[in-house]
């Protein structure tokens, strides 16, 4: 009877120990991943400004668009090549803007599509994925 009771006590102890260790590892993984995400958020975003605002006509209308843009760059080492190609970058952005109608760029969905098209056009022009995001600092359609 004593042996049976001892086995039950040891089994319960091992079970509690296993649950505690599992919980510890699961929680430490969660805490560690959250701290990694916070570190990523604290990393400095690298941006490049292709100059002053862009002002151009929209497609098939008498309306125009005026935007000021910053480009998020994947790596700091890419800033110098971008600075050397500012004229090409501005021309590419103006081409994208001129080929849009006011309806295509309406609302947040339209602006997000425009951002993605600018990213794709610039990366295509540059021949590699350098631009990862577009920030509109000013966005006026009139």
Describe this structure in words.
By secondary structure, this protein is of the alpha+beta class. The chain has two domains: 1-43; 47-141, Band 7 domain (Tetrahydropterin Synthase, Chain A, 2-Layer Sandwich). It is built from four helices and four strands. It has helices at residues 2-42, 79-84, 86-98, 107-126, and strands at 47-48, 54-57, 64-73, 131-141. Strands 1, 2, 3 and 4 form a four-stranded antiparallel sheet that branches. 12% of the residues are buried.
User: What is the number of helical segments per DSSP (H or I, 4+ residues)?
Assistant: 4
The coarse overall form would be elongated
CATH topology of the largest domain: Tetrahydropterin Synthase, Chain A
What is the string of SSEs from the N terminus onward? HEEEHHHE
Structural class: alpha+beta
Provide the domain count: 2
The overall pLDDT, averaged over residues, is 86
User: Which residues sit in consecutive blocks of at least 5 with pLDDT less than 50?
Assistant: none
Distance between the first and last residues' Cα: 90 Å
CATH-defined superfamily of the largest domain: Band 7 domain
- Rounded to an integer in angstroms, the radius of gyration calculated over CA atoms is 27 Å
CATH architecture grouping of the largest domain: 2-Layer Sandwich
- Tell me, what is the CATH class of the largest domain? Alpha Beta
Helix content: 55-70%
Quaternary structure classification:
single chain
User: Biggest β-sheet, characterized?
Assistant: 4 strands, antiparallel
């Amino acid at each position: 009877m004593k042996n049976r009771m001892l086995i039950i006590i040891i089994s319960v102890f091992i079970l509690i120990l296993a649950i505690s260790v599992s919980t510890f590892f699961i929680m430490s993984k969660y805490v560690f991943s959250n701290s990694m995400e916070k570190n990523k958020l604290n990393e400095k975003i690298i941006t490049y400004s292709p100059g002053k605002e862009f002002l151009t006509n929209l497609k098939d209308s008498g309306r125009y668009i005026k935007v000021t843009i910053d480009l998020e760059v994947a790596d700091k080492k890419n800033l110098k090549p971008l600075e050397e190609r500012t004229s090409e970058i501005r021309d590419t952005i103006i081409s994208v803007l001129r080929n849009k109608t006011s309806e295509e760029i309406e609302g947040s969905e339209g602006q997000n599509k425009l951002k993605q098209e600018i990213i794709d056009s610039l990366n295509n022009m540059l021949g590699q994925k350098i631009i990862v995001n577009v920030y509109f600092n000013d966005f006026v359609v009139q």
